[in-house]
From TrEMBL, chains A, B, C, D:
Residues 48-209 form the S-adenosyl-L-homocysteine hydrolase NAD binding domain. SUPFAM superfamilies: Formate/glycerate dehydrogenase catalytic domain-like (SSF52283), NAD(P)-binding Rossmann-fold domains (SSF51735). GO terms for cellular component: cytosol. It comes from Nothobranchius furzeri. The keyword NAD applies. The gene is AHCYL1. This is Adenosylhomocysteinase like 1.
Amino acid sequence: MTSGGVLTVVSPQRVGSPTWLYQLSKAGKLCVPAMNVNDSVTKQKFDNLYCCRESILDGLKRTTDVMFGGKQVVVCGYGEVGKGCSAALKALGAIVYVTEIDPICGLQACMDGFKVVKLNEVIRHVDVVITCTGNKNVVNRDQLDRMKNGSMVCNMGHSNTEIDVASLRTPELTWERVRPQVDHVIWPDGKRVILLAEGRLLNLSCSTVPTFVLSITATTQALALIELYNAPEGRYKQDVYLLPKKMDEYVASLHLATFDAHLTELTDEQAKYLGLNKNGPFKPNYYRYTSR
Amino acid sequence: MTSGGVLTVVSPQRVGSPTWLYQLSKAGKLCVPAMNVNDSVTKQKFDNLYCCRESILDGLKRTTDVMFGGKQVVVCGYGEVGKGCSAALKALGAIVYVTEIDPICGLQACMDGFKVVKLNEVIRHVDVVITCTGNKNVVNRDQLDRMKNGSMVCNMGHSNTEIDVASLRTPELTWERVRPQVDHVIWPDGKRVILLAEGRLLNLSCSTVPTFVLSITATTQALALIELYNAPEGRYKQDVYLLPKKMDEYVASLHLATFDAHLTELTDEQAKYLGLNKNGPFKPNYYRYTSR
Amino acid sequence: MTSGGVLTVVSPQRVGSPTWLYQLSKAGKLCVPAMNVNDSVTKQKFDNLYCCRESILDGLKRTTDVMFGGKQVVVCGYGEVGKGCSAALKALGAIVYVTEIDPICGLQACMDGFKVVKLNEVIRHVDVVITCTGNKNVVNRDQLDRMKNGSMVCNMGHSNTEIDVASLRTPELTWERVRPQVDHVIWPDGKRVILLAEGRLLNLSCSTVPTFVLSITATTQALALIELYNAPEGRYKQDVYLLPKKMDEYVASLHLATFDAHLTELTDEQAKYLGLNKNGPFKPNYYRYTSR
Amino acid sequence: MTSGGVLTVVSPQRVGSPTWLYQLSKAGKLCVPAMNVNDSVTKQKFDNLYCCRESILDGLKRTTDVMFGGKQVVVCGYGEVGKGCSAALKALGAIVYVTEIDPICGLQACMDGFKVVKLNEVIRHVDVVITCTGNKNVVNRDQLDRMKNGSMVCNMGHSNTEIDVASLRTPELTWERVRPQVDHVIWPDGKRVILLAEGRLLNLSCSTVPTFVLSITATTQALALIELYNAPEGRYKQDVYLLPKKMDEYVASLHLATFDAHLTELTDEQAKYLGLNKNGPFKPNYYRYTSR
């Protein structure tokens, strides 16, 4: 992805941030300017929150035809992906529990109406376990052993490490492939746990990504490349940068027409009152863009 | 608020950020280190998003006994406050329109299911206008003239400038105080528009702030003062700082017990995988904490 | 309420149906035709479902300033009132449990995303208990003894019998009136339970009824009286009747203009296909008008 | 479906009621007792409300991969099916309009936060049209002509008559099958309207029915047959009956275990107070079982 001394990076999986790129930079091994487009606001919201809000439903339906109403679900991790998944499932009548390591995200889950629990507190009685953590071994063999017959487990977070799938490849357990991407793992007592996509990303394996989301991502990348290419000598050093906010806003504005959305323009008086340029950027860099 | 060379600032109104403090710093007139506690994550979410989600309902009910179901409402501004107000009203059966100047927030409103319009497109037929912008003259006399009989207008944003109330103090309009904080402004043709709190903040004037929110705010301020006081020489210069993320997380963790929320602890292996300290902070500084 | 041989009955409390009127009829003691307007569709939905969806929030806020987000609430009874209360609280971030005696309503609660429990399973850890049953002693002294410090209990159902308030008037408990309609009942160990309106109806005691709801109710009653008065000899005998569906529809149609709602008219071809008169009634008598 | 003098009827399409059976009875041509299981409470809610709430999402995703967030959708008909479809789409961020012929259902749509419009008012700008009416020619050629490029139309109601598909089979329009169940109908100016399942039922053609729903339906039918077979001479004449409420409740109670739902039992004192048998039935025949 190097291109004449510039580098844009799209995190291939949703890990919250392209950690390795920052590590490269920290180690002094980054030889070109890089732009972390993964953490631009617009791309983040669409790739993670808005897209996963729909693809969790899509992925579960296409693989298992499960009814959501009344199901007990535990969502591990309440970042953007976890927020999207839990909101969608709750909206369709599921009872959702959340696990978190971060007290701020944990408090957000409380305020959004989710009981924050340790996985062990609910693992015996939930119908569905969904990992959205960016972490590894979030669901381990011990917990899989305690899941109930007919329950299912899947990964919406990143990579294939969140569920300890390797621990299920032992002689006493039988695997039965019931359809593509759907395995029944069978315990000696006959208990079946339904594993989706062998623990790889459910939304990439078993659902589709709407073209609208792809358009957001592609636009963000293209603008980042244009910026790196056109930037005057010295604006960017061998470091990792976030997309300039104005470009982030530009990506969003290009996609508003789809929704027939009409923005309001600041008057001169208002722009002066707010200390803003009428064309943006409209927010300080540390602004967080809560979704709701 | 200066205290032996330290300064913490709580924005007296919700304006998104304590703009004037940054202006002071920029002008080189800040003579002590200052901490912008207003923009700490936990305080922001509670003061703005979570609190306003409830107080918009409370404020409207206590003043007007209005039924929310079926009402057409326009929320001006889709920041934290606007997000809270529109989510609550939608949840109770109102039809909500949103106005925005920022394309990112506008796109968020679209994805949350709100039609993004210019105020002029809907002003004639809405039942309620709510300002949440941090801006001035968002609703002007021309628009007030076009509001329908019995409609109401109120401010959840900041100060008393968002609605151009001064423009309503002209001879041809009659003001009738129907109860505390509630005025009927009467046009020559008999049309009445209901103005709440004379355009001052509805939630401060006409509803209550739950003690839980006050606890979050007070804890944040106290920790900021302690940090500034205890910090080793040189950690803070004459500049504006955000609350260290670890303290932000600490505020949140102190309030989790109320909800009987149980956080998960990272294993050593997981902490290493994520490159995190097991005790936090858990997120990079640019992380945005979407609410949903 | 007798009027020249006619009788319309509005249930003074929401008990699901004016039971005593049917008992009178069964006993042969009804001396005039009577119309059970309480169970007309339009009135039922507004008095119970739509009104309580808002007044539970209003009543709790005005009396206690409680924050809804993250609160654990148990709603006893999942009829129209219970459905309204639980939907509103869930929408504002509370975690809601439901108790039911009727398997159909219990299954509805499941599909709406509420855990159906026995009161004893959750009484120790909930923050709020709300009765909506039409029954008596739904919360008894034994359960009140087990509620936690600072929790609250109120009645949205009917009468003042749902919470066994009499059982709290014993020497070892101290009552402290902290504001009108709000009592702290104090146990010997210092535990306080907050009792609202002394167990009478929260929405009648501590919140307001929107004029729109009153308009629906008054219109329904007036039309019932007109029908009974104008009906040809013999249409109504000494029995209890439901409001004719066409009148029920007429009440609704009179209130649509408020919402600028535009109904569609059947074409002749469509009316014939459906076997309906173009002016209604549009549904068979047994139709149930699910709200969602 | 006659069986030794008994007849149970499951409406093959969701038309609100098995109209023809009542017509047969009215015409005196029914030669055996018949049970209208279609209108038993439990079956109705699951087949129509709860099932369609999920299958509208599933059907649209599998056929078109559309993103729901921000889409403008019109749902024609606000019965059980329309309520399910509009609630689900709204929950996922779509902006939903509703058309209705019945003022009661229209008022319900208002209170649920949907703008009630005539189809012609919105047909030019909506992205998706969904019919749920039980009626015919609800979307006619004139309206299809005015739909915008890229918009889609589908039927969730009954049969294949709701969209006037026949009117699209004219020489100037080109049909292009882009995948199974998905046709692009192309106007001379290049405009494409996406027609799903050629106007037949989307949920039967393009999504799956969860086994839980099938279990509810099968149980209801089986119990109806058992009742008709076992009933003492004379209980049922050559007429159409609804499933006895107690059996309806029994169907529900058999399915509660799936959700680990725990019903509350009436005490003797409570049963007496309510005038109910402790084992049910718990509601009068005219009770309507609002869902929310």
